Task: inverse folding
């Protein structure tokens, strides 16, 4: 809520400029027939500009965890749309989630550095469900970082030998989608500042869109090292010579 409030306060000067010029420009803004210059906009222009900006920012900013193997495409799409709706209604909640995941990723990377050199990207990958346990060639459970650390420490599984480049290769965060989102956001911001400089009105919808876009950018920066849209986890195999059995861990099989 604090982040969204700060972003909204950033747009106060634009709203003030809009109100100061409201008497002589408001009518012309929506009625092109009364304006001698091309500074008019229709309702559709405003809605389409704000809608494209919101979609581009939320679609790019949202970084989902790896889905369970029994989830189909409809489940995955539903989860993404749910997160996008939350990003629109309560963007500060997504930013809080991103900050919490970043802290956990740093902690996970530090915990595993006793075995191999892990980066924050490794920590994100483990925290988002990146490792699945296989027993006798069959999938058993998705491991949490704590479970993976315990199994590696007891020699029940081998330390996953996955490099940062391998994790990046699994990520589907392509540069084209990021460039399109950045271009749309920059174009939107330029339009806002141009109207402010010309003392033309800026709608409250545009100010709210700008605030949500700013908060979405903060979330994206916090998730910068998190792999995006990874479809398949990394498989770790249970050591057949281990004295313990994965069945000794309650509810482990139910998490797959």
Result:
């Amino acid at each position: 809520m604090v982040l969204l409030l700060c972003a909204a306060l950033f747009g106060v000067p634009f709203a003030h400029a809009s109100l100061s010029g409201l008497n002589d420009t408001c009518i012309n803004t929506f009625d092109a027939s009364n304006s001698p210059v091309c500074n008019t906009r229709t309702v559709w222009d405003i809605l389409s500009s704000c809608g494209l900006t919101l979609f581009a920012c939320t679609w790019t900013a949202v970084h989902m965890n790896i889905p369970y193997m029994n989830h189909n495409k409809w489940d995955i799409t539903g989860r993404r749309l749910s997160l996008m709706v939350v990003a629109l209604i309560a963007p500060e909640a997504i930013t809080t989630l991103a900050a919490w995941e970043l802290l956990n990723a740093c902690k996970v990377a530090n915990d595993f550095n006793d075995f191999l050199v892990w980066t924050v990207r490794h920590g994100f990958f483990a925290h988002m469900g990146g490792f699945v346990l296989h027993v006798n060639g069959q999938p058993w459970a998705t491991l949490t970082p704590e479970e993976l650390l315990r199994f590696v420490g007891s020699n029940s599984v081998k330390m996953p030998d996955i490099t940062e480049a391998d994790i990046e290769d699994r990520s589907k965060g392509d540069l084209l989608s990021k460039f399109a989102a950045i271009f749309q956001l920059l174009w939107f911001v330029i339009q806002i500042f141009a109207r402010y400089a010309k003392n033309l009105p800026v709608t409250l919808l545009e100010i709210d869109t700008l605030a949500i876009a700013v908060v979405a950018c903060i979330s994206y920066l916090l998730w910068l090292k998190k792999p995006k849209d990874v479809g398949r986890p990394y498989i770790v195999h249970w050591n057949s010579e281990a004295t313990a059995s994965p069945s000794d861990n309650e509810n482990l099989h139910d998490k797959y």
About this structure: Residues 98 and 222 are 6 Å apart (CA to CA). The radius of gyration is 24 Å.
